Every structure is written in structure tokens, then in C-alpha cells.
Amino acid sequence: MKKLFLIFCFLLTVICTYAQESITGVWAMEKENTKIEIKENGGISEGTVVSSDNADVIGKLLLKDVKLAGDKWTGKLYAPKLEKWMDVVITKKDANKLSLAAKAGVASRTLEWTKE
Hints:
Blueprint: H1 2-21, E1 25-28, E2 35-41, E3 44-51, E4 61-69, E5 72-79, E6 84-94, E7 97-104, E8 107-115
Antiparallel strand pairs: 1-2, 1-8, 2-3, 3-4, 4-5, 5-6, 6-7, 7-8
């Protein structure tokens, strides 16, 4: 019985840890009522625009090569206005908020996305 309890506790810990480390799902940006779906495949995540008031961006890849590095994710964020990929560091503020710090040269910007 004691072994069964310990196994249950271990599995619960693993599940909770995985849930905290996941950024998969649909996230809303403030701009243009845009929603991004983040999917993970083999430890690498990418995000695609699934809906937006700007029809030109729907289906576009916005995040790529995103990998967990400690308690943050690092990868590339596409800046449509600049037409270039920027380095990004993603921090999960809580279960429903992501903070994205993007950098290109000396310019930087922080975005906040909310889970749908």
C-alpha cells in the first residue's frame, strides 16, 4: 500500500510539473484581436496565427524553434512590420499569461499574451 501511494505521488508530481512547463494552447494578443496556437513536437514548439482581424496574417508562422531552457523558453518571433525574425524569451507569468521579450539588435519589446 505504501509503495502504491509513493507511485501515485510521483506520477502526480510529474503531471503537475509537465502542466507548468507547457505553453501549448491558444493565446490571445492584444493587437488586431489575434490568436496564436502553440503546438509542441519533440520538445520544440511553434506558434501559428489561427484568427485575426487582419486576414493577411492568418495561417502565418509567428513563433519557431521554441525550446524550454530552465524556467523560460527561447526561440524566434516573427515581426511582420519589420519582416524579420527576432530572438524571443518567453516567461510563463501564471497559468494564463505569457510574457514575450523580443530583441533585434538594440531594439526590444515586451508583449503579453493571454490564454484562451
